[in-house]
Amino acid sequence: MVGNAQTRLVLLRGNSGSGKSSVAAGVRERFGRGPALVGQDNLRRVVLRERDRPGAANIGLIDLTARCALDAGYHVVVEGILYADRYGEMLTRLRADHRGPTHAYYPHVPFEQTLVRHATKPIANEVGEPQLRDWYRELDLLPGGIETVIGADSTLGQTVDRIMVDTGLAGLPAIDL
């Protein structure tokens, strides 16, 4: 078992350009001290410099990092593309082992809109439309209907508000760790 009854675990998965990172940052900003951001891109691309492939080391590192933060009393937001076929088993175990509330969200944005959003990212010159099209998976949801799908019509502020309320983070004090 991991964490405690008060720690919150938020899973935030979706396609590139769906707003996951912005939402995760918004939750952290809104809450204050206490939420740990466990970002797939940071652990996979920055820490390990690894490609996203089945069985890659970042899968275990994401799991260990989230577990360590939960055990230390942090709320945790795990954020990334996190394809269901590659990361689903790890996320299912993490969710089952967490003692506190766990909530999962999937921002669903049409491919054309992800292209527009991608153009504003620092990696826009390195990653083009063909690669984005290859990465894109329509509603790549985890089994069991555990994710709340958030439509493209939800603004960043509305999405952050929803997560803050759904998870109970809106009513909790910041953590002084």
Write the layout of secondary structure elements.
Layout: E1 9-13, H1 20-31, E2 35-39, H2 40-47, H3 57-71, E3 75-80, H4 84-97, E4 102-108, H5 111-118, H6 129-135, E5 147-151, H7 156-167
Parallel strand pairs: 1-3, 1-4, 2-3, 4-5
Helix pairs in contact: 1-7, 3-4
List keywords for this structure.
177 residues; 5-stranded parallel beta sheet; alpha/beta; globular; Rossmann fold; 7 helices
Strand order of the largest sheet: 2-3-1-4-5
Count of structural domains: 1
Total strand segments: 5
- Average pLDDT works out at 92
CATH class: Alpha Beta
* Separation of the first and last Cα atoms: 21 Å
Structural class: alpha/beta
Q: So how many helices?
A: 7
Order of helices and strands: EHEHHEHEHHEH
Under CATH, the homologous superfamily reads P-loop containing nucleotide triphosphate hydrolases
What is the CATH topology assignment? Rossmann fold
Shape: globular
Biggest sheet character: 5 strands, parallel
Alpha carbon gyration radius: 15 Å
CATH architecture: 3-Layer(aba) Sandwich
The stretches of 5 or more residues where confidence is low (pLDDT under 50) are: none
Helix content: 40-55%
**Approximate strand percentage:** 15-25%
